[in-house]
Amino acid sequence: MTMTCGTPPGLGTTFAGRLRRRRQEQGLHKQELAARIGVSLTTIQQYENGQLPKGEFAVRLAGVLRCSLDWLLAGRGDPDRPSEREEDLVMVPLVEARLSAGGGSLETGSEVLRHYAFRHDFLRRKGNPSRMVLLRVSGDSMQPDICHNDVVLIDQDQREPRPGRIYAVSVEDMIYLKIVNAVPGKLILSSVNPAYAPIEADTRDQLGDLVHIIGRAVWVGRELE
What we know:
The chain has seven helices and nine strands; from the N terminus they run H-H-H-H-H-H-E-E-H-E-E-E-E-E-E-E. By secondary structure, the protein is of the alpha+beta class. The longest helix has 11 residues, at about 15-25. It is elongated.
């Protein structure tokens, strides 16, 4: 029997095959994909063995893999061109203000509290929808711009500090929402409320491992009681 080069049999003809193929094309390890989706490594392994993801996890999987949900689940259409239906809404998780293992990003696994729907085109104008999370604000240090109990949309892809922009920043095991300005060897974390003095976070040597910019705040919303 003559073998030809190309995609191995089954890789791309089933959901498990399409998932594995797309993950490899995106250069993602299973553990990294699991962290970005907010599930366990075991769950990703189950997906690649043929178990179909449920509800929002399917949407988030397609978002991280940058492919059409119809193609991923059913093999229909062009993987790189989402249908209009898929582009309408994205469900963004509201998470606890808690860092994932290793620091530098917010925990999005078991700590998801709920999801909020956003238009895909709106999120694309703001940044990377697949890397966005919502965070509830605690405290009054950013008043009057951002108030206690507001919900802030954080794009975890935007980590390079731009002067005067607001970021979620972790310092040791604490998470702050602050205006970030960078000077040599330091990040200056400032509040809007003048009652709070700026925080100077040293980024040199080993101290730099304790300071992480999680992502930029790109939207704020308020729930009325």
